[in-house]
TrEMBL record:
Protein name per its UniProtKB record: Uncharacterized protein
Keywords: Signal
Domain of life from the UniProt record: Eukaryota
Signal peptide range: 1-19
Length: 306
């Protein structure tokens, strides 16, 4: 029996979801969310689903549709945060590290700042809430945006989400959008239903350290990459959670903190720069030499500081 665990720390069986009246045809975004989970989330490790703030209309059905199908996969323990249920059950505290995260966002496209405000609250619940010990920034994160937004808004939303992730130490993150022919090129929300052939998905992410001009996302120099997905084979045939830290860092700086401990780290040489301040340069020591070898092999610029 698969167990579904809610943020209210209640445990219930996934069987209660089988009675929900959901239609597969309306939930392409959730189908792709499930497929990405099956293809790229580690089996047996907990998957956390964070529900959107203030979902409306068919949003509830789509969320239940996703949870129901993830339960049916019988691959992971499922944790649902922000669940709106009142129930009596045994209280527990989860301390195992989470394996993967699915974060759901909803709301009007024009109010994209509201998306990000809600997203910050969702991250805050994960990192500082009652299950903070299970927070795992090294996990894979998938954010599914439950709004058909034009490109103008999707890039604003995805960049803000990826920036927020970066500030929390998360580097394996994707933002998934559903795109339709009606939604493209317009800065307004669309409520029209679309046929399957008019719909595709977009994955948006970024790849820091690709060249010396695109090192640190915090500097605003790393562009958002957009990948169009029209069928399931793209998900199955690609490593969409590519590692950001590759073998060649293209001269990007790496900051290394050291402390003096001879003979491994010898005291630095001090230089007076620009007639204004001293600069400490760590040049000697066994570990300093080792750092230089590592930096050279990665084509990285080392910044060694106290």
């Amino acid at each position: 029996m698969v167990v579904l665990k809610f943020m209210v720390f209640a445990t219930i069986s996934c069987r209660f979801l089988w009675s929900l009246n959901t239609s597969r045809d309306d939930f392409e975004l959730m189908d792709y969310t499930k497929l990405i989970s099956e293809e790229h989330f580690a089996v047996g490790h907990p998957v956390v689903i964070v529900l959107p703030h203030g979902e409306q209309g068919s949003g509830n059905n789509a969320v239940f549709y996703l949870i129901k199908n993830l339960c049916a996969a019988v691959r992971w323990p499922i944790f649902v945060f922000n669940a709106r249920y009142e129930m009596e059950a045994n209280v527990f505290i989860e301390t195992h590290k989470h394996g993967s995260y699915i974060i759901l966002l909803s709301g009007p496209c024009q109010d994209w700042e509201e998306h990000i405000s809600g997203f910050r609250q969702q991250l805050s619940i994960l990192r500082f809430g009652n299950t903070w010990e299970s927070w795992n920034p090294r996990a894979k994160f998938l954010v599914s945006v439950m709004s058909d937004c034009p490109h103008f808004y999707t890039t604003l939303i995805s960049r803000a989400i990826l920036n927020e992730f970066w500030s929390h130490g998360v580097v394996k993150a994707l933002v998934l959008f559903k795109k339709s022919s009606e939604g493209r090129g317009k800065k307004s929300d669309q409520n029209t239903s679309h046929s399957t052939q008019d719909t595709h998905m977009e994955i948006q992410t970024w790849f820091p350290y690709k060249n010396s001009q695109r090192c640190d996302p915090a500097e605003g120099t790393v562009p958002v990459k957009v990948f169009t997905i029209r069928n399931f084979s793209y998900i199955r045939g690609n490593d969409i959670f590519k590692g950001h830290f590759i073998k060649n860092l293209h001269g990007c700086p790496i900051r290394v903190h050291v402390r003096i401990y001879q003979p491994f780290v010898n005291p630095p040489k001090r230089f007076w720069l620009n007639d204004s301040y001293y600069y400490d340069s760590y040049e000697d020591g066994l570990e300093i030499e080792l750092l230089r070898i590592i930096g050279k092999s990665l084509n990285a610029s080392l910044v060694i500081v106290d």
